[in-house]
Design goal:
Elements (H helix, E strand, L loop, with lengths): L5 H13 L9 H10 L2 H9 L5 E2 H8 L3 H13 L3 E6 L2 E6 L2 H11 L6 H13 L4 H6 L9 E4 L19 H7 L3 E5 L1 H8 L10 E6 H9 L4 E2 L2 H14 L2 E5 L7 E5 L5 H7 L12 E5 L9 H5 L5 E5 L7 E5 L9 H5 L5 E5 L10 H12 L2 H5 L6 H14 L2 H8 L4 H14 L9
Antiparallel strand pairs: 1-3, 2-3, 4-8, 5-6, 5-7, 6-9, 8-9, 10-13, 11-12
Helix pairs in contact: 1-2, 1-3, 2-7, 6-10, 7-10, 9-12
Length: 435
């Protein structure tokens, strides 16, 4: 670890985590999280390891630890969810966990050897620190990419037999296309439970993961493997409870579907508590109300997770009120429709189609470009002086507003992503583009 120890070490670790796919601005609250979660040897490994997915041999060559010591530390980090290991092509690939989805979720999903109360307190303090700096940094008005998208409850779509709903918009289709499944503890409700903020009676065992993500969670004791039938039952239960389906913001190989409530979910808190509606992409549907069928029962008003429904007077001075939808913030989740006993509420297609990234690779590239950290994925060796120089140079270029806006535009985005894909394939890492 050289001369680094104590607070200086954790400041450097904080800087590393802040430069991953999701920003995590460093402050005293984050220092407390890192000091509690990472031992000094673990912090040193994460600081020195590459930003992106790398196999053990490359990490060892960069860090220069002996094999036994490095494997032991990586195993500890993976078991705590502080490093993600993915098994692909008969090999393990490792990368540091970002704050979200990563450090927060996996800490609260662990099934053993965890002081949940202390962890919950520290995580909550960080999310709320500096007037919600985590949310303002990641989801401000200039943000154009996010981890999360809303899935509509399929049965709430008007004229379902005649309305086009693509497979990546259906929870059932996502499940049927997957080959491995796990159910774990909802990290948000678990956190709120231990900070005495959980006011709902929704269950904790709802977090659904698929494919290589499920494999990671199962191997590291953060979730239980379940059958496809059990997963479908889990989603059906969540629908009956009126939970919001929040999915991985990709079309192919979806890795998770969260089953969220408005009172506990930290993604929805970004909307409800801080007003950052870029925290979550809407579905391609929007709620619509038939005023002739609405009886003013207020069920939709009480169940909307983001307060997008208000009750207004049927006519001036009238005691009777009917539901009205704020279409500027409606997520298109369908929870209000589930609770409507008169079928006055249904989801209808939005006029403008929402564009989602095709793969995790595409989403990661767009996220990092949006957050100003793409240079770290391109030149990912923190121990190389040459790559450090290239990160500074490339980062300064990519952060220019005109460059960022152009690359994120509908006209050039696909060409830019294709160029990034070609570059990855030339490095012999073409498999990354498929996940």
């Amino acid at each position: 670890m050289g001369h680094l120890s104590g607070k200086q070490l954790y400041e450097k670790l904080g800087n590393k985590i802040d430069n991953l796919t999701v920003r995590a601005p460093y402050n005293d609250a984050l220092y407390s999280v890192l000091k509690t979660f990472y031992s000094e040897p673990e912090a040193d490994v994460v600081i020195k390891m590459p930003y992106g997915l790398s196999d053990f041999n490359r990490i060892q060559k960069i860090i220069k630890y002996n094999e036994s010591k490095l494997r032991n530390i990586l195993d500890q980090l993976c078991s705590k969810g502080l490093v993600i290991d993915i098994y692909v092509n008969d090999n393990y690939y490792y990368m540091p966990s970002p704050f979200v989805i990563g450090i927060f979720e996996f800490t609260m999903m662990r099934t053993k050897d965890t002081d949940y109360k202390t962890c919950s307190k520290l995580l909550t303090e960080y999310f709320n620190s500096d007037n919600g700096i985590f949310f303002s940094t990641n989801f401000n008005d200039d943000s154009n990419a996010t981890l999360f998208r809303t899935l509509p409850h399929e049965t709430t779509i008007k004229d379902l037999d005649y309305t086009e709903i693509l497979d990546y918009e259906k929870a059932t289709a996502i499940i049927k296309e997957s080959d491995k499944f796990s159910i774990g503890t909802c990290s948000c409700r678990h956190e709120k439970f231990h900070t005495d903020e959980k006011t709902c009676d929704f269950p904790l065992d709802t977090c659904a993961s698929f494919g290589y993500a499920a494999d990671f969670l199962i191997r590291n004791n953060m979730a239980k493997e379940v059958s496809k039938t059990k997963m479908l039952e889990n989603m059906a239960r969540s629908r009956e409870l009126g939970l919001v389906f929040i999915a991985d913001n990709v079309k192919k190989n979806v890795t998770f579907i969260c089953n969220c409530c408005g009172c506990c979910c930290n993604v929805l808190a970004g909307l409800n508590n801080f007003g950052y509606f870029n925290a979550l992409l809407t579905s391609n549907f929007i709620a619509s109300i038939d005023q002739d069928l609405c009886n003013g029962c207020m069920e939709c008003f009480k169940t909307c997770p983001i307060d997008a429904i208000e009750m207004i007077e049927e006519s001036p001075g009238s005691k009777k009120k009917k539901a009205s939808i704020d279409t500027s913030i409606c997520l298109g989740c369908g929870v209000c429709c589930i609770k409507c006993k008169t079928d006055a509420l249904k989801l209808i297609p939005r006029k403008e189609k929402i564009i989602y990234p095709e793969t995790t690779f595409e989403r990661t590239i767009l996220q990092c470009l949006d957050k100003g950290t793409l240079q770290n994925q391109i030149f990912d060796n923190p121990q190389s002086k040459t790559q450090s120089f290239m990160r500074v140079l490339t980062g300064a270029f990519l952060k220019l507003p005109a460059i960022k806006k152009t690359l994120m535009s509908d006209i050039l985005r696909s060409r830019f992503l294709k160029a990034m894909e070609t570059g990855i394939k030339l490095q012999g890492k073409g498999w990354i583009t498929k996940i």
